[in-house]
Amino acid sequence: MVTWLVRKYINFKNRYNNIGENTQLNISSNIDRKSKVGSYCYIGKNSHITKAKIGNYCSIANNVAIGQGEHDIKLNSTSSLFYENTYEELTKENCIIEHDVWIGTGAVVLRGVVIGTGAVIGANAVVTKDIPPYAIAVGCPAKVIKYRFEEDRIRNLLASNWWDFELTQVKELFRKMS
């Protein structure tokens, strides 16, 4: 029993060597080998991430789908049986989730989308196009309803590159910025 658990843990660690330090990944979630997740992130239950690059300090809730395969509706059939390389053809474009992004429960981010630093994606939103930094986007399809901060503050936050620092340094920087 102990040997089996050790082997399972080693397989889990080897499978997810593309995950940054201090990132919490719920065991029921799936991140494919072509994805990369930064440090200090949280990924909730039953989330599925395909061909995505996720920055540091991101919060991804339960039941989120990022970069999942999309069937080509212009072909005679939508069945994946007609693809030469199903995985590659269904997931052609990578998703980029920049830093400090919060994605709410049940959201879907289509392949090829870029979500800017500091953005918030509402629960059950379907993100079909790029979202700018510090925007709040909700709905199906997701639309920007407002920005988290004024332009000057957004510019200062983006210029600080705070997401490149360790947590203790970030806390100190934010204390000084308040």
Automatic annotation (TrEMBL):
Q: Which GO molecular-function terms appear in the entry?
A: acyltransferase activity
* SUPFAM superfamilies named in the record: Trimeric LpxA-like enzymes (SSF51161)
InterPro entries for this protein: Hexapep, Hexapep_transf_CS, Trans_hexapeptide_repeat, Trimer_LpxA-like_sf
Question: Which Pfam families is this protein grouped with?
Answer: Hexapep
Q: Name the keywords, alphabetized.
A: Acyltransferase, Repeat, Transferase
Q: CDD domains, alphabetically?
A: LbH_XAT
Q: Which family does it belong to?
A: Belongs to the transferase hexapeptide repeat family.
Question: Protein name, please?
Answer: Chloramphenicol acetyltransferase
- Organism of origin: Vibrio parahaemolyticus
Q: What is the lineage of its organism?
A: Bacteria, Pseudomonadati, Pseudomonadota, Gammaproteobacteria, Vibrionales
